[in-house]
Amino acid sequence: MSGRMIDISEHILSKAILKNGITLQSVVCMEECAELAKEISKQIRGSGARTHLLEEMADVTICLKQLQLMYNIPDDDLNLVINQKLARLEGRL
Ligand SMILES: [Mg+2]
Predict the structure, then answer these.
(1) Measured between alpha carbons, how far is 74 from 71 in angstroms, rounded to an integer?
(2) What distance in angstroms lies between residue 84's CA and the mean position of ligand 1's atoms?
(3) What confidence score (pLDDT) does residue 1 get?
(4) What is the number of structural domains in the chain?
(5) What's the pLDDT band for 45 if we cut at 50, 70, 90?
(6) How far apart are the C-alpha atoms of 81 and 64, rounded to whole Å?
(7) Which residues surround ligand 1, an ion (CB under 5 A)?
(8) Residue 72 lies in a domain
(9) CB-hemisphere CA count at 13 Å for 11?
């Protein structure tokens, strides 16, 4: 799984940004993050459903790609910071 990127259609995401604009699309991303947080909370409380968690994880995964497009974050930049953070985490384990 290491280094493998999920293939998300940038074409579709670009169309959404053009149609809705960066501001609205950014708000959608915030909302999706909140929905995932709520679903994680339900899992902890024991009232969560796997399908719901899966759906919210998918939404946020899509939103992360959306954010990359809107705020000009290339995969390489993101991967660099991810790897730095993973190395730091590993160092603390
Ligand atoms: Mg959602």
Answers:
(1) 9
(2) 28
(3) 42
(4) 1
(5) very high
(6) 14
(7) 32, 35, 56, 59
(8) yes
(9) 1
- Whether 31 maps to a domain, the answer reads yes
Burial of 8 (C-beta count, 10 Å sphere; 0-12/13-18/19+): middle
> Residue 75 is part of which domain span?
10-92
Structure tokens at 55: 């759906």
pTM summary value: 0.89
Ligand 1 centroid, distance to 14 Cα (angstroms): 19
Give a yes or no: residue 41 inside a domain: yes
**Ligand 1 center to residue 55 CA distance, Å?**
7
Containing 49, the helix (H) or strand (E) segment is: none
Q: Contact 63/28 with Cβ under 8 angstroms?
A: yes
Summarised one tens digit per residue, pLDDT across range 60-77 is 999 999 999 999 999 999
